[in-house]
Amino acid sequence: MGLKSTLGNAFASLLLLSAGGLTLWGLWLLVESLWVGVTEIRILAVMFSFGLAMSTGFTGYFIRKALAGQVMPTSFDRSIAYRGGQGGL
């Protein structure tokens, strides 16, 4: 395994781990809001934590897929369906 894939996998794993931690933090804030009471700061913190968890999770997932070579290339072959004027009735 090369240095690029090793560092990339380590970074992607760190992103996925942080997404899990942010999700747990958001759940903790939800439980605390139900237990103690809802405040504006807690609502914003819950939205922030779940949004950042989704962003870091998707980014980590995409980086791992890209390093494995399982991402669709940008110059993929277009079928006949996308060529206007050919086929039809």
From TrEMBL:
<feature type="transmembrane region" description="Helical">
    <location>
        <begin position="7"/>
        <end position="31"/>
    </location>
</feature>
<keyword id="KW-0812">Transmembrane</keyword>
<keyword id="KW-1133">Transmembrane helix</keyword>
<keyword id="KW-0472">Membrane</keyword>
<protein>
    <submittedName>
        <fullName>Uncharacterized protein</fullName>
    </submittedName>
</protein>
<feature type="transmembrane region" description="Helical">
    <location>
        <begin position="43"/>
        <end position="63"/>
    </location>
</feature>
